[in-house]
């Protein structure tokens, strides 16, 4: 049984890719022993974006549906889990079990509206923005969630890491988000290699032709948006317990949604490694710029953003498919992870 | 033989233009049936109505005894109608094999089983050696064959082929004709094809319906059709020889 699953997961993957993947995993496992707390926190941000990027990629990269509002699902996850914790003392894992169906239902509702009534392409993207904005404004007025005053999780010094309540030091959070990223990666690979994955790609490539091949495109697009929302909601739970404060203005802000997309776009839309690689490159770039500008004593407001934007522009122009498809060819791993 | 597909007075209008006007014909199970006619005669519109891509404005389409007119294309496909597109539409970024796997998954949940089925079809259509190639990089004749393979992978009882010979060289046309004959003989699949290439129609079809300006002007065996004065007048021209390629 176990061997069967491993065989299915690893089937068709060249040995070199497996070795590379294993090396990366070991390096990530060892990271907290090598790096200080600050760098571990940077790694947490990277993995958080890799995780949310992977979820966004299910919709856009696999099924071809452009969502610009995935912050909605993370925000719902964050708020529901945080409110259950602060008001009823219910831990984040149970909170996630409560939040996930809500986020998934929201995704399904948006998907239903769009796919049933032929809202596609950029109009679908606008609908997703509108729903996230609706939530942002709505939560600003919901007293159950402390409205615009913000929802705060109690912060105290903990003698030991409490995994069950997600209270502890950055290292614990690091391993939680690392595990989540691995789970999301494995889950996405399994989906991609199964019937639903083939159907998503067919719909992404040509929906009419997909339907002519017997694919109920409505149903499979609904799966994509629901699964993406459900995965993203976990990121929200993590966010709430890591940062300990939630403001609708921040959590549901469109820039949160955009951050989630940048990794896969830079790394390679529709690939499994793209979101991870993209998150490393983007956050790494931002951190490097920070350090470099500090070292050179540059303190121009906005200069970092300009440089960051120029770097992104170069990547997008030079490698329109993203970095991973190019890099994997360079490494001789063509087609290894699609 | 009972009719697998039956069209009763089906019509389609696009605003003022009557694209298909009360066309009726029956395709018996196991037949090789061709629809011919000049450009703009309404052949593709007719196909799109059978395949569910367009809903007819009037008339009835019956497949295997059940009405299918106006059903969505995926439902029509699941009922047993496979199709190709006149302007080929393979899934461009997917490999040749993955394109066909998508079709084969209709009746199989397991990707491994679908892959086996896909490979068997790719062998039959001479695409096996190119199975790892990305579909977008194929030549037009190969893309046409790929469309046929993908449609066949859904295990249709009725296969709709929209000009799969157009743009093929005579030798490729003959090869395609042989493949389709073989498929028809071995699997019993009924084939309804739109075709301009008379060489293929004459070699393949047991029965032909001729459309002109949306109406069926003649119907019958291909040998009789090419001698029909109305058909010669509207479509073939006086000299059939020039159309043969």
Superfamily at the CATH H level of chain B? P-loop containing nucleotide triphosphate hydrolases
pLDDT averaged residue by residue of chain A: 90
Sheet with the most strands of chain A?
A: 2 strands, antiparallel
| CATH fold naming of chain B | Rossmann fold
Runs of chain A in which pLDDT lies below 50 for 5 or more consecutive residues are none
Estimate percent helicity of chain A. Answer: over 70%
- The tally of strands of chain B reads 10
Decide which structural class fits the backbone of chain B. alpha/beta
Number of helices of chain A: 15
Please explain how this structure is put together.
The complex is a heterodimer of chains A (338) and B (245). With 338 residues, chain A is mostly helical. Helices cover 73% and strands 1% of the residues of chain A. Chain A has one domain. Chain A has helices at 2-10, 15-34, 37-62, 71-88, 92-116, 122-139, 170-192, 195-205, 207-212, 217-243, 248-251, 254-267, 274-295, 303-318, 323-330; strands spanning 151-152, 245-246. Chain A has a two-stranded antiparallel sheet. The two termini of chain A are 26 Å apart. The mean pLDDT of chain A is 90. Chain B is built from 9 helices and 10 strands. Chain B has one domain: P-loop containing nucleotide triphosphate hydrolases (Rossmann fold, 3-Layer(aba) Sandwich). Chain B is 37% helix and 25% strand. Chain B has helices at residues 43-51, 73-79, 96-104, 111-124, 140-153, 170-187, 198-204, 222-225, 229-236, and strands at 3-14, 17-28, 32-36, 58-63, 66-67, 81-83, 158-162, 190-194, 207-212, 215-220. Residues 240-245 of chain B have low confidence and may be disordered. In chain B, strands 6-7-8-3-9-10 form a 6-stranded mixed β-sheet, with helices on both faces. A 4-stranded antiparallel β-sheet of chain B has the order 2-1-4-5, covered by helices on one side. With 245 residues, chain B is of the alpha/beta class. Classes of the chains: A mainly alpha (338), B alpha/beta (245). Chain A binds chain B through residues 193-195, 198-199, 201-202, 205-206, 208-217, 270, 335, and chain B through 51, 53, 72-74, 77-78, 82-83, 85, 89-95, 98, 101-103, 105-106, 109-111, 114, 132, 150-151, 153-154.
């Amino acid at each position: 049984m176990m061997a069967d699953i491993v065989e299915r997961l690893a089937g068709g993957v060249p040995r070199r890719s497996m070795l590379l993947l294993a090396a990366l995993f070991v390096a990530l496992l060892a990271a907290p022993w090598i790096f200080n707390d600050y760098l571990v926190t940077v790694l947490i941000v990277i993995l958080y974006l890799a995780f949310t990027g992977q979820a966004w990629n299910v919709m856009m990269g696999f099924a071809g549906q452009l969502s610009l509002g995935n912050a909605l699902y993370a925000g719902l996850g964050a708020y529901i889990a945080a409110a259950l914790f602060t008001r009823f003392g219910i831990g984040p894992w149970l909170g996630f079990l409560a939040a996930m169906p809500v986020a998934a239902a929201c995704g399904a509702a948006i998907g239903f509206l769009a796919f049933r009534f032929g809202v596609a392409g950029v109009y679908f993207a606008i609908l997703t923005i509108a729903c996230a904005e609706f939530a942002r404004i709505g939560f600003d007025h919901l007293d159950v969630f402390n409205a615009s005053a913000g929802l705060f999780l109690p912060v105290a010094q903990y003698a030991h890491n409490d995994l069950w309540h997600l209270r502890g030091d950055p290292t614990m959070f690091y391993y939680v988000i690392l595990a989540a990223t691995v789970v999301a990666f494995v889950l996405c690979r399994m989906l991609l290699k199964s019937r639903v994955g083939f159907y998503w790609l067919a719909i992404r490539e040509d929906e009419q032709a997909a339907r002519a091949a017997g694919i109920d495109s409505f149903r499979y697009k609904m799966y994509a948006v629901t699964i993406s929302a459900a995965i993203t909601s976990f990121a929200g739970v993590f966010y709430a317990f890591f940062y300990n404060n939630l403001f609708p203005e921040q959590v549901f802000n469109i820039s949160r949604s955009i951050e989630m997309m940048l990794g896969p776009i830079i790394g390679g839309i529709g690939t499994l490694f793209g979101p991870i690689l993209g998150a490393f490159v983007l956050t790494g770039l931002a951190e490097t710029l920070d350090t470099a500008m500090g070292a050179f004593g540059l303190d121009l407001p906005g200069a970092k953003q300009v440089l960051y934007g120029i770097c992104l522009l170069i990547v997008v122009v030079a490698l329109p498919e993203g970095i991973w498809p190019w890099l994997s060819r360079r490494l001789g791993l063509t087609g290894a992870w699609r | 033989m009972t009719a697998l597909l039956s069209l009763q007075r089906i019509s389609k209008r696009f605003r003022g233009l009557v694209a298909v006007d009360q066309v009726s014909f029956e395709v018996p199970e196991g037949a090789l049936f061709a629809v011919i006619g000049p450009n703009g005669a309404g052949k593709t519109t007719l196909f799109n109505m059978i395949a569910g891509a367009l809903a007819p404005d009037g008339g009835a389409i019956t497949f295997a005894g059940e009405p299918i007119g106006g059903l969505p294309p995926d439902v029509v496909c699941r009922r047993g109608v496979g199709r190709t597109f006149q302007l080929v539409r393979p899934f461009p970024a997917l490999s040749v094999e993955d394109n066909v796997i998508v079709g084969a998954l209709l009746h199989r949940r397991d990707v491994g089983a679908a892959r086996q089925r896909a490979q068997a079809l790719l062998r039959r259509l001479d695409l096996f050696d190119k199975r790892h190639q990305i579909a977008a990089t194929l030549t037009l004749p190969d893309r046409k064959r790929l469309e046929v393979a993908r449609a066949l992978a859904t295990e249709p009882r009725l296969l709709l082929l929209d000009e799969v010979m157009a743009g093929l060289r005579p030798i490729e046309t003959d090869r395609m004709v042989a493949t389709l004959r073989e498929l028809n003989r071995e699997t019993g699949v009924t084939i309804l094809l739109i075709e301009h290439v008379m060489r293929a129609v004459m070699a393949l079809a047991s029965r032909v319906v001729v459309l002109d300006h949306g109406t069926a002007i003649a119907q019958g065996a291909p040998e009789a059709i090419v001698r029909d004065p109305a058909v010669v007048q509207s479509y073939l021209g006086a000299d059939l020889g020039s159309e043969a390629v």
